Amino acid sequence: MIIDSFAFMPLLIASVASFVTIVVLLADREQYNSLSLALHVLCAALMSAVSLYTAIYATYNLLVIGVTIASILIVLAVFINRFSKARNNDIASSSQKNALSQENIQRSVSEDIIPIAKDFVVQVTDSLVNISKLTPFIDNVNTTLLQTVKADGSVLLLIDEFEDLLVVESLVGAFPPPYRLPQEVPHTPLEVENSFRSTKFTLDQTIFGTVARTGKAELITNPREDSRLVENLPEPFLSLGSFIIVPLKVKDTVIGVLALSRSPSVMPFTKEDFDTATDLCDIASAAINIVYVHRSITEREELTREAGVASKIQSMIQLKKLPSIPTLSLGTVHQRAAGVCGDYYDIIPARKDRISFIVSDVAGKGITSLVIILMLRAMVRLTVNTKQSASTILTWLNKELSGEINLDHFASVALINYNMENSTIQFSVGGTIPIYLYKKSTGEISKISNITEPIGVEKSSVYTDDQCTVETDDIVISYTDGIVETTNINGEQYSKNRLLEVVKKNAHLSGKEIANKIRSELEAFSGEQFQHDDQTLLVLKIQ
Which UniProt keyword terms apply here (predicted)? Predict the structure, then answer.
């Protein structure tokens, strides 16, 4: 009997479930149309009544079983429908909230970055109009990023266009160097900052070089676990905190690096700080590149104008032809690389007993170099007519160039005085211009000059004379470093040894023919490779 009573428990449960279903249906009546709601309620009420009646009167047949199963299915369907709609509503609500949150974040980021971008554009325009404002522009870009991400220090480094070196262009705030400081640098804030500003980093040095080389931004929150960083303890101001280091890129080309630092006593940079810095660096890179490209174009145009004027002047002072000297056979090579030629040579039949030869290489390019050349030419042509020695003339030149004249240039100069009456050469060198002597009697060629202080560096410099006797078929040569530093397509230099070997092999030729051989050798060696330095060679063969 107990077992029979338990057998009707499912019917009681089905009856109660059907009744609950009616309550749920009425509560969610907004979800159904009138006909659907009426049918659901009617079915649930019928199932509830049949189940309850059967349980009470203990009648059990196929009809009752069918109604029970249908009741259970309808109950499940209603509750599944309700749960599904509730879940969909939660998902929709969550998605809407996320969308609104994302929209708010984007709006917040936009509201932060757009004014900065506009300010960069204004500054770029100002820098294009006034090129002298380039440094303030770089400083302002650096300061803006520091303030936006709430950093304690910021350093902006740019890659030198002629060398693969990172150069500090701007340093703002407190930025502890994350590399090993030189031992000679005192650990004081001022000395460390000055050292940092003047240091140039190769692309295989420090974390700055790594970021520039890889083009990958870095977020470093624990510097003591990063082997690429070095902490210069024990001074507290040198302690490392967190870092954001971002490459400044234009398309796929890295033009520099911007690094931000936070003190270890404050919260490290977050991913949001990192993303903001990265976005701002993209804008800053484009702005900086525009200014630098404009400056490069402006400087190139200025150099082109200067070169045009200087070339005309240089063509006026250049020897139209070599003088005819009975006891000498002369040959020259004189090739300008680009722009204003920094090399200068001259042959001056000063007196009956002396002919003066000068070969010089003026540092730098442009109008200033031309001014130095013109001064050298004028002073040498005036003084070689006197009885003063080569060293005295160089000493006078040096005092004049390093004296009251406000020109930050210097020159290497070789002055050779040939005495036809006693077959001697007297010479003096200021700087690195070499003089070589080939002796016919031995078949050997050797350097007879020494390296000294260039002209125009130190006013108190004093130069000395050297002298030697020359014989028939001896050869004297002097040249600028552009000759031996001529490069080929593989980056190899022509070298001094190649040059001297050509002279020895062709010593039986005239001075002019030897110079032509050297010119041909240089052209064959370099091919189509562009040369960055001027080339000047002077050959004197004794007859």
Answer: Hydrolase, Membrane, Transmembrane, Transmembrane helix
